[in-house]
Design goal:
single chain, alpha/beta, five-stranded mixed β-sheet
Length: 140
C-alpha cells in the first residue's frame, strides 16, 4: 500500500474509532533515502506512512516484514522490536507467517505503539510476540 492509501486507512480508522490498527510496512523503512537508492520511492513512501500513523490518536502497531514470499507459513519467525532502519529488505518471510503475526499482535496490549521487524526464524510466533511486547500494566 502506498502512503496515500495508508493515510486514508488511518483517517478512516480514526473516524470509525477503531480500537486497534496494525500497519504493514517494510524492512528498510524508518528513514528517508536519496533518489539513487534502488528502493527509494517505495521505502520513502513506507516511512512517511509510518510517520503519519505515529501522529494519529490510534492504538497502532507497525510490522516491517522482510521480502514477502508465497511459501507456506512455518509458524516461526525472527522478530525484533524497534529495529534501527536498514538499507532495505534483508531476509524473507512468508505472507502466511506475517498474517499469523498480525493476528497474534492484535489482542496484545503490550504491542501498542511498537514497531517490529519480521523475517523467517525459529521462534514460534506466539512466543516471539510475548518476547517483544511490553507486559500490560498491572491493575490497581
Amino acid at each position: 500500500m502506498d502512503r496515500g492509501g495508508s493515510v486514508k486507512v488511518g483517517e478512516a480508522a480514526q473516524r470509525a474509532e477503531v480500537g486497534r490498527l496494525v500497519q504493514v510496512s517494510s524492512t528498510g523503512a524508518g528513514r528517508l533515502y536519496e533518489p539513487d537508492h534502488a528502493l527509494a520511492d517505495y521505502l520513502n513512501a513506507k516511512t512517511r506512512a509510518e510517520d503519519d500513523l505515529r501522529r494519529r490518536d490510534l492504538d497502532w502497531t507497525i510490522v516491517r516484514p522482510g521480502l514477502l514470499t508465497d511459501a507456506p507459513g512455518s509458524g516461526t519467525v525472527s522478530l525484533a522490536a524497534e529495529p534501527p532502519p536498514s538499507d532495505g529488505p534483508h531476509g524473507a518471510v512468508s505472507r502466511d507467517d506475517v498474517a499469523e503475526l498480525i493476528a497474534a499482535l492484535l489482542p496484545v496490549t503490550g504491542a501498542r505503539g511498537l514497531t517490529v521487524e519480521v523475517t523467517e526464524g525459529a521462534t514460534p510466533i506466539d512466543r516471539a510476540v510475548r518476547a517483544v511486547a511490553a507486559p500490560a500494566p498491572a491493575r490497581p
